[in-house]
Automatic annotation (TrEMBL):
It comes from Noccaea caerulescens. This is ATPase family AAA domain-containing protein 3-A. Belongs to the AAA ATPase family. Keywords: ATP-binding, Nucleotide-binding. Residues 11-98 form the ATPase AAA-type core domain. Pfam families: AAA (PF00004). PANTHER family: AAA-TYPE ATPASE FAMILY PROTEIN, PUTATIVE ATP-ASE. One of its GO terms (biological process) is mitochondrion organization. The keyword NADP does not apply. GO terms for molecular function: ATP binding; ATP hydrolysis activity; zinc ion binding. PROSITE patterns: AAA. InterPro entries: ATPase_AAA_core, ATPase_AAA_CS, P-loop_NTPase. One of its GO terms (cellular component) is mitochondrion.
Length: 218
């Protein structure tokens, strides 16, 4: 969804081209739009440009009738932001709930193993401006006191976190370790970063409930 806005006035043309191509394809087309709310939000949204509004209207025009040529799949974390005309066109809704405590424990272990114990580069969770800094290749040492019990406690505290937030939490742990001269990860540093990220998560929820849009780097 976030790729539509940069197209500007060309977005309408591109949308029509996709649907025209689907009609000529023997197999049809499955069109998947991730972060759909970035493109298909309410048309009375103050922040929507005229080009985005026109692109949304073009999509609504092409999806007004039942079609065997195209299947449209939308993914969003903010279904309430979708335009009412878009939700009227949705035949099936599938909810993917936030990870539970056991899933969060598994995710924390997965990312800790992948990005700290194995030393891989956490590209997906790193901020976009991280390329401005030199690549850190120093080996990370994980102390034995970072036990499953410590990680399990972190899983309990991160209730309400999405998978992406957990990945970013581990990216924060990785950054914290590289900020130390000895590049050592122990339970104390891990707990401090978890506490910080949990407070950051709750603050973001408070700001959203008050109508503020916090400035976030991703």
């Amino acid at each position: 969804g976030g790729d539509v806005a940069p197209l500007g006035s060309q977005a309408v043309t591109k949308i029509h081209q996709i649907f025209d191509w689907a009609k000529t394809s023997n197999k049809g087309l499955l069109l998947f739009i991730d972060e759909a709310d970035a493109f298909l939000c309410e048309r009375n949204n103050t922040y929507m440009s005229e080009a985005q509004r026109s692109a949304l209207n073009a999509l609504l025009f092409r999806t007004g009738d039942q079609s065997r040529d195209i299947v449209l799949v939308l993914a969003t974390n903010r279904p309430g932001d979708l335009d009412s005309a878009v939700t009227d066109r949705i035949d099936e809704v599938i909810e993917f709930p936030l990870p539970g405590e056991e899933e969060r424990f598994q995710l924390l272990n997965l990312y800790l193993n992948k990005y700290l114990k194995k030393g891989e580069d956490n590209r997906d969770a790193k901020p976009k401006w991280s390329h401005l800094f030199k690549k850190v290749s120093q080996k990370i040492t994980v102390e034995a006191d970072l036990t499953d019990e410590v990680i399990s406690e972190a899983a309990k505290k991160t209730e309400g976190f999405s998978g992406r937030e957990i990945a970013k939490l581990v990216a924060g742990v990785q950054a914290g370790v590289y900020g130390r001269a000895d590049c050592v990860l122990d339970s104390q540093l891990f707990k401090e970063i978890v506490e910080y990220k949990v407070e950051e998560h709750h603050q973001r929820i408070r700001l959203a409930s008050e109508g503020f849009q916090p400035l976030l780097f991703s």
